[in-house]
Specification:
Length: 525
């Protein structure tokens, strides 16, 4: 046998490691995750990670569009109430064990169990029996309309035809979870040593306030097409620090961009800056249990009308956001609704705000004093300062600001420990229902203001059971008009997203859902 030259061997040994070097992606991810348990989390930062770790019956492509996931195909009954999903026979968990229809049954039952206390359980309420079981009105989980016909066939029965149902299944609440791991480890099932994933990646380590590391799942159905070996999700609540880390090459994709630097960043990093419309609304929720707001819609309207949304978006946020005079942002098959006062000029709105403020019992002799709660973020802080200044100038309201780290903020919000709280709702699917359903009186903590309106509830119930698309749309539009008149919230703007994406990244596609699963991305040397 011919011997290889020593120089050739030396070169092979020298360069071999580079040929097999791990491809690592570093993503800014906003807040520190509350938890990675899909039934206990509620934020975008958690969902970003969960979409890499798990895959539902359907999933999204690089453009955010729906495509088959664990289910390779499905049929819908003629009445639109029964969905039969056929799972891929090669579906596996990250330990190589088979993923079956029973894993979905188990996941949905756990999500809806009252003891799980999931904020997002209402997402699954379109399923027959789901709402009654979640509310404790029905004790038998078998009454939920989800059953495994065989290991590869899942049947879901709905209480009424639901046009957005498939889109809803892209939400993490509809992902499967590994029954054996959960039953063995309990609440610790989500820890690296216990977890099993069925997505493109799985949890490797979680160092709080430093990073969440995911590694490629070799048992994922598309593993051969996944280009990045590991991804670090880095908490970046301070947008200025995140920008510095991006400039230093420590982060490949930013979660956001500081609002006061957007113009500069857009010029300096023109090819790397991405600003895209986002299916979401940034708003302030008013605690209707607070004496200042309870039974006092006039003061709520006064506070809303005192805000100059044009200045807030043009001078403060500066990222192309659209001033919001309604709650539901632009979505398919829906006509945007606006507050009646949108048609007034600034002077007329200011005059009306002052009149309503006086009629509500406040004025020179008795000024309202408020506190705005927001989660730690430079952009949230700048907006809160501007809002407080407008309330002071127009109405005389004294406003204090209180910022809290994400987990503490979520706890305060859930327990109604606020007067005014900054919030943002990102649509779970492209339909007005995902926005309006938040204000039904029975959805629990996700109804941040504690809003209750029998007429609003009636219209939403009509929309949820209406088979005529036009009548369904009309019912929701009427419901939104009632919501806007009652003013439990103050919409401020319709979201846009801003990211800096390294030129080394391939496969990035802007989309209104702002979902960018790592499995579709690549890194060039």
């Amino acid at each position: 046998m011919r011997k290889l030259p020593r120089l050739f061997l030396a070169l092979c040994l020298t360069y071999a490691p580079f040929a097999f070097a791990e491809t690592v992606l570093k993503r800014g991810n906003g807040t520190e995750p509350e938890t990675l348990d899909i039934h206990q989390s509620s934020g975008v930062s958690e969902a970003n990670i969960q979409r890499d770790m798990f895959e539902g019956l359907v999933t999204e492509d690089a453009f955010g569009k729906l495509q088959p996931g664990v289910a390779e195909k499905w049929e819908i009954s003629a009445d639109g109430k029964r969905y039969t999903f056929h799972l891929r026979k090669d579906s596996q968990w990250s330990d190589g064990t088979a993923l079956t229809a029973d894993d979905f049954v188990y996941a949905y039952r756990r999500a809806l169990a009252p003891e799980t206390a999931s904020d997002y359980a209402f997402i699954l309420w379109p399923i027959a029996g789901a709402e009654a079981f979640n509310k404790g009105e029905q004790k038998d989980p078998a009454t939920i309309g989800v059953k495994a016909l065989d290991p590869q066939t899942l049947e879901i029965n709905l209480k009424a035809p639901t046009s957005y149902f498939l889109g809803m299944l892209m939400h993490p609440m509809a992902f499967p979870i590994p029954k054996q791991a959960v039953e063995k480890a309990g609440k610790d099932w989500i820890k690296p040593d216990n977890i099993r994933c069925n997505g493109a990646y799985c949890l490797s380590e979680w160092t709080p306030q430093a990073h969440v590391k995911l590694v490629k799942n070799p048992h994922y159905r598309r593993a051969a097409e996944v280009k990045i070996d590991s991804v670090y999700y880095i908490p970046t609540e301070d947008q200025n620090s995140e920008l510095k880390r991006y400039r230093a090459g420590e982060i490949d994709i930013t979660y956001d961009v500081p609002s006061d630097q957007i113009k500069t960043v857009a010029q300096d990093y023109a090819a790397e800056f991405h600003s895209t419309p986002y299916i979401g609304t940034y708003y302030y929720a008013l605690n209707l249990e607070n004496p200042a707001f309870k039974e006092n819609p006039k003061v709520r309207r006064a506070l809303s009308l005192a805000l100059d949304r044009d200045i807030l978006t043009e001078k403060i946020t500066q990222a192309g956001e659209i001033p919001a005079w309604g709650w539901v942002p632009p979505v398919d098959n829906y006509t945007q609704q606006n507050m009646e006062e949108k048609s007034l000029d600034k002077a007329a709105r200011t005059k009306l705000a002052q009149e309503l403020y006086a009629e509500s019992g406040y004025g020179t002799d008795k000024q309202l004093e408020l506190e705005i709660l927001y989660n730690t973020s430079d952009n949230n802080k700048k907006l809160a300062i501007a809002v407080a200044a407008m309330w002071k100038q127009t109405l005389g309201v004294k406003t204090n600001l209180r910022n809290e780290e994400w987990k503490v903020y979520l706890s305060s919000r859930k327990q109604k420990q606020f007067q005014v709280v900054r919030s943002s709702w990102i649509g779970d699917y492209n339909d007005a229902h995902t926005f309006l359903s938040l204000f039904k009186s029975d959805v629990g903590e996700m109804n941040t203001s504690g809003y209750k309106s029998p007429e609003f509830d009636r219209l939403m119930a009509e929309a949820e059971t209406q088979t005529d698309a036009k009548k369904r749309q009309e019912a929701m539009e009427q419901a939104e008009r009632i919501l806007l008149a009652d003013t439990p919230i103050i919409p401020i703007y319709y979201n846009t997203t801003q990211h800096l994406v390294s030129p080394k990244i391939t496969g990035w596609e802007n989309n209104v859902m702002d979902v960018h699963p790592t499995q579709y991305l690549g890194l060039v040397p």
